[in-house]
Amino acid sequence: MTRNTRTTGDSALNAARRARELRALGDDPQVDVLVIGGGVTGAGAALDAAARGLRTVLVERHDLAFGTSRWSSKLVHGGLRYLASGQVGIAHESAVERGILMRRTAPHLVRPLPQLVPLLPQIRPSQRTLIRAGFVAGDALRRSAGTPPALLPRARRVAAAEALRLAPTVRRAGLRGGLQAWDGQLVDDARLVVALARTAAAAGATVLTRVEAIAVQGNSATLRDTLTGATLDLRAGAVVNATGVWADTVDESIELRPSRGTHLVFDAAAFGGLTASLTVPVPGSISRFVFALPAPHGRVYLGLTDEDAPGPIPDEPKPSESEIDFLLDTINQALREPLTRGDIRGSFAGLRPLLKTAEDSTADISRKHAVLHSPSGIITIVGGKLTTYRRMAEDAIDAAVARVGIAAGPCRTRRLPLVGAVSGAARDRLAIPPLLIERYGSAASVVLSADPSSREPVAPGIDVTAAEFAYGISHEGALTPEDLLDRRTRIGLVAEDRAAALPAAEKLFD
Ligand SMILES: Cc1cc2nc3c(=O)[nH]c(=O)nc-3n(C[C@H](O)[C@H](O)[C@H](O)COP(=O)(O)OP(=O)(O)OC[C@H]3O[C@@H](n4cnc5c(N)ncnc54)[C@H](O)[C@@H]3O)c2cc1C
């Protein structure tokens, strides 16, 4: 069996490579590890396995980041929320993983984001004391994880003028400054997944989108090409189920209790040039907040809810009316001019893949991840969160290696930069617009080298060029216009923008 230890191979994913690799797999359908699910967990697991020198296949039945991994708040958390519920271990793990992402693996995709809690009259002194104590504990977590204050500054109190500079639409009457802390923010969650999958491909993994795993067992699965209907029977040393909220459809011994989280999308102008996460405590709660986040394409995302979501899992979950009211009512308490439904440009909702427990509320279920072994031998990795994907992947592949006794190297992902990773002086030297560096890192030079005629926006007022769409197809595995609009970029979050950019995306597939 071939052992592969490359990490600098070709990272470009595209239709030609997919066809070639499917053919090769048909000729030799025996691999070390099959990973099912192309979200952040599966892409991370495929990278971990391939970087250990294992012959690895990742299959995703739709597109990379088709599931929960594109509906997150796009925050790389230090784990403060978990401290509030006494989960010190998971909080520390989050802070460590945040540091790894920001310093080594994806510094181009994660930026420091100030978090501002405006001190308005409705915040009671006891609430203020708790928030301040939480921020101090957040600093301690950052220190314990070895993340320097030069990257994520210390929490502090800011004057009213500074609070208004960060969040210009905050109510002035009674504003007594703000509490400010720092966390990490992804340029986009789907772009992290694409970068992971491409890095896995460069390390030798076979990454196949629009390929579904059916009839899955501990050492085999049937792979169905959803574009042609063709199938092939794959044998694997270990099978890792990383299908998130669909985990119980692959392995029926898994019991989940999904919880829905909703965000609303606004034009940045509705928040007057917000440059921080405007964070407003939910009345009556000491650990829940609603926050408005500056987002790509000139937008602001407002989240977040936590609702039990029983029943069949939809491909695209939808926000409920009561979630929309809750988000607007909570943020409006902090704004000078209330926002209305008329200001909303779009919305999105995702389902958290939480394990079933005896807790009353989904908000109380631990976000800790779990590696589960089913009677058939399938290894399922579930729970957790985007921030800790790397640790989840490491635990899953450790379990795979141990189960079948495959000869493999140690986990290498702590120090393995993702495709495009660039920071510090090397980043400063790139003569490339910052917007493109945030999206593509050092690989932006390839996007920029495209024909000058393709540097025009894909539609008026949209900050994405035809060259970026073309790169999505040649290097990032986009196989349809939807992949370009809804995952390689997030144009699709606003229906009007999506309609305007659709012809440019369709033209590239003519
Ligand atoms: C609203 C919300 C906000 C969040 N915000 C944050 C945040 O700010 N920071 C953070 O760290 N975490 C956050 N999280 C958590 C984080 O988003 C999830 O934990 C993570 O994205 C789950 O990723 P996953 O890869 O496990 O699942 P998914 O992303 O759902 O991936 C599973 C994939 O498996 C595929 N699949 C299913 N069945 C098959 C099959 N039979 N064959 C092939 N493929 C299959 C699906 O198509 C899907 O793409 C948030 C979650 C939600 C819901």
Automatic annotation (TrEMBL):
Domain Alpha-glycerophosphate oxidase C-terminal: 411-503
EC number: 1.1.5.3
InterPro entries, per the entry: DAO_C, DAO_C_sf, FAD-dep_OxRdtase, FAD/NAD-bd_sf, G3P_DH_FAD-dep
Keywords in alphabetical order: FAD, Flavoprotein, Glycerol metabolism, Oxidoreductase
Catalytic activity: a quinone + sn-glycerol 3-phosphate = dihydroxyacetone phosphate + a quinol
Family note: Belongs to the FAD-dependent glycerol-3-phosphate dehydrogenase family.
Name of the protein described by the UniProt record: Glycerol-3-phosphate dehydrogenase
Lineage: Bacteria, Bacillati, Actinomycetota, Actinomycetes, Mycobacteriales
